[in-house]
Amino acid sequence: MTPLRLGIVGLGTVAQAVYLPLLARRPDLFELASLYDVSPSTLAATAGRYGGTPRRSLAEVLAEAPDGLLLLTPGSHGADALATAEAGIPVLCEKPLAYTLAEADALAASAAPLQLGYMKLYDPAVDRAVAAVKVRPAPRSVDVTVLHPPASPQLVHARIPAPAADVPLDTRDRLEGETAAVLERALGDAPPELRRLYSDVLLASVVHELALVRALAGDPVSIECAQSWPDDRYPGSFSIDGTLSGGGRLSIRWHYLEQAAVYREEVRVHDDLGTVELVFPSPYLLHAPTHFSETGSNADGEEKREFRSTAEAFERQLEAFHRFVSEGERPRAGVGEGRADIATCQRIVRRLAEGRGWALGGEAAQ
Asked: Is the pLDDT of residue 161 over 90?
């Protein structure tokens, strides 16, 4: 395979802990052409360590016409992904795709060559689970539990640089203004706590769980209830209850645990035969195996099958991006899947707002 010339925009935590180390190990697939970050010191240090030519903007990176772009910035990627699409450059876009349905629709209209960064869909254990549920009865329920610690204990092993404090003030103000404007289009004059839950929890974390639910049982057709607690801390805990297309029920329980040290995620699909289960470690622990198990029965009793693999989901996602660019292989998640998750997250915040008596406008109120 011919290595692809990559541009990378956004050199923060996920770039430093995951993408850059993996790319350094795969010169057979990729070479770094150019880099950009809003922090000049981060940009210079990363280029010095990993190579690539530092650039002063996304536009400068696109002007070099790389074979592909990794879009790893925080927040909504709608505008930058659209600019990349208009330049005709395929993009691997980290979540979330965008904050609004309008941004997603603009990307769809552009026929953007975009792979969405839902790396868990490339986990070998998830492949086993998807294959298993296809030959089992319809799910009675899908239950998801996420125990989410702070970032620092998850990243001790990675030894990534501390966040830089040299982002120019005018750049910071511009980015904050753009984020506020797109959140207003999504939620109207919603209170700050609801905006943060939508942008920093639902679209920044829970979309991974929604992608898994889609792969295993399809998108939820409705959200009946959403709650958050306790009132005196953020992000705290929240619950989501919905209905799946086959009539089964969806339950998601997400807890931010300030004093926990280890991330854990459990996904269980219950049906008439038993349970298909996935248990995920921290996504920042490269090559830490996800555990798959499947229970069923025979004439003598219960049977259980298990599987673990150290194949890295992020690396398999990068391999898939190479095939997407060079061979046109369809990604497992793209603009359509990202739009579906924005719509589901807007349904969730609508239920949260209804239950708490919060004002809500914009797209989510429709």
From this structure: no
